[in-house]
Amino acid sequence: MRINITCIIVTILFLSVGCDEKSAENGIKKEPLISQGFVDDDTYKVVCRGYPLEGSTGIQKTESSKRAALLGAYYYIKNAFNESVAPDRDGKAEKFEFMSDHVVVHYVVQKKGLKKMAKAGK
Residues 12, 48: contact at Cβ < 8 Å? Predict the structure, then answer.
């Protein structure tokens, strides 16, 4: 089941990160990660951008951007910690910022002894 969820997250991330023609023409790269790091030994914060599905408008555009931002945050958290940290169970979206072409999520994971659960080199 974890492999399926990871595959879905990676697929969505690739779809949300891929450059469209306008971005390529303007030289703008759609980088999802803004920042990540420990606030203290028990708190880790990730700030991620999410871009909408191509051709979506209105609420669909907003919700697909939110979902892409959340999945991006999950991806970076899964890469930073061992299997004892589950982004959806141990974390929460602290804040969403809505921009004209993307959404930014501030995602916080809090767990006792979190710093000890970080993967080596992260």
Answer: no
- C-alpha 49/C-alpha 94 separation (Å) is 14
At 46-78, the pLDDT tens digits run 999 999 999 999 999 999 999 999 999 999 999
Q: Where are the domains of the chain?
A: 2-117
Nearest Cα residue to 79 out of 38, 118, 47, 35: 118
pTM for the structure as a whole? 0.74
